[in-house]
Write a structure and sequence with these properties.
By secondary structure, the protein is α/β, with parallel strands linked by helices. About 45% of the residues lie in helices and about 15% in strands. The protein contains 11 helices and 9 strands. A 7-stranded mixed β-sheet has the order 5-6-4-3-7-8-9, with helices on both faces. β7, α10 and β8 form a beta-alpha-beta unit. The longest helix has 25 residues. The chain is globular. It starts with 11 loop residues before the first helix and ends with a helix. The relative contact order is 0.07.
């Protein structure tokens, strides 16, 4: 097969259509082309990854970590999608945003794919996080080992309660909310976790933004507003339980209907 290439030997058509790159590279290899078949093609950094895909990448990364711990070096799209709870077509589409198409007949190399996803999610560098509010929920979050294992280190604990300020939790001295700006600057914090009462959430959020924080994970049971340049993710545990309650009600109604018809 004759492949059109430029002066540097680059496959012109494959650049235009990355899906043809894998098939063509395989054909070249079989035809005697000494160059190896690429395992993955790196896409330009400017390519936009959809928000929904970003959320699923974190799930894929968790599944890959589990596979690595079990000593598994390669995984098929069907196996990985099953571990992540999605269908294989969606997984392949998501990974195409990374330029990762796997190896035909082999699947994905666990280590390589883990590195690709980590790089896409910005986890190749450790990020300092401030935890605002050290009540029951805040203290539980401060002790969560999953932060460190995923590239995040809790550098600062902050609270407004005089009885908590100055105490030590998980090896960190709780700072005063009055010193928030200096704490953020000292630890170069750009991500904060908000675990404060609903009534205080907006005020604390505003102070975080003024201090230079640009990403906030909100556990407060309320909606807060942030400027366009700040990214906000909300975790509402009560709302999630309410959703589960809805499903339980629906299942109970279905069981009653089935019993009545039998």
């Amino acid at each position: 097969m004759t492949v059109p290439r430029d002066a540097r030997g680059t496959d012109i058509d494959a650049v235009a259509d990355p899906r043809r790159a894998e098939a063509r590279s395989t054909a070249d290899f079989r035809a005697g082309d000494p160059r190896p078949v690429p395992e993955a093609r790196v896409v330009p950094e400017a390519r936009i990854v959809p928000e929904a895909t970003v959320a699923r990448l974190a799930t894929y990364l968790r599944a890959l970590s589990s596979l690595a711990e079990r000593g598994i070096s390669t995984v098929s799209s069907e196996e990985l999608s099953g571990a992540a709870g999605v269908n294989s077509a969606l997984l392949r589409k998501d990974l195409s945003f990374l330029g990762s198409y796997g190896i035909r007949g082999v699947g994905y190399e666990v280590t390589t794919l883990t590195e690709q996803i980590s790089r896409t999610l910005g986890l190749t560098v450790h990020r300092a996080v401030a935890l605002i509010g050290v009540g029951n929920l805040g203290q539980a979050l401060a002790g969560y080992a999953g932060f460190a294992s995923r590239g995040f280190r809790v550098e600062a604990l902050v609270d407004a309660d005089p009885n908590r300020v100055g105490t030590t939790i998980r090896g960190l001295v709780v700072g005063d909310i009055a010193d928030l700006a200096s704490i953020v600057a000292e630890h170069e914090i750009t991500i904060a976790v908000l675990a404060v009462p609903a009534a205080a959430a907006q005020e604390v959020c505003d102070r975080l933004v003024d201090a230079g924080v640009t990403s906030i994970l909100n556990f407060a049971p309320t909606v807060v507003s942030v400027p366009a340049h700040v990214d906000m993710r909300k975790v509402d545990l009560a709302a999630e339980l309410q959703i589960l309650s809805f499903h339980e009600t629906r299942k109970a109604a279905a069981a009653l209907a089935e019993a009545a018809s039998s």
